[in-house]
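Quick question, first post here. What does this chain look like in 3D?
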Amino acid sequence: MKSFREYLWFETKEREELVNITQQVQKIVEQSGVQEGLCLVNAMHISASVFINDAESGLHQDFKEWLEELAPHEPTSQYLHNRGVEDNAAAHLKRQIMGREVTIAITEGELDFGPWEQIFYGEFDGQRRKRVLVKIIGE
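> Answer (accepted):
Ran it through. Tokens below.
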């Protein structure tokens, strides 16, 4: 069985962004040479997420608004976590909701998705360098 690891690096311009990373992950699958296996895509920071959903801008705006209702950034004083030097408690909560990672089957060298599925990096405390692990195993 083969094992292949690569990192994607992000430094978003905004505090919160949803970035489609499907093509980047597919290129890594191709580089790995794995034809049949699994691909793990994992946000390596506790205020960022990786998830699968539709690449539709209205839905992404709905996500942002819904998450802000559930875990508003302001006022930062509402969170115990923010009583130190941090102001990102809401980002941690949003990450918990959207998830840490996804695993996608690889079939015939391609990510094996259902209709409309795409992979997204969700940044909730951006404007600094963060990474995503792509780990591929298979034959």
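The chain is about 25% helix and 35% strand.
The chain has one domain: 2-138.
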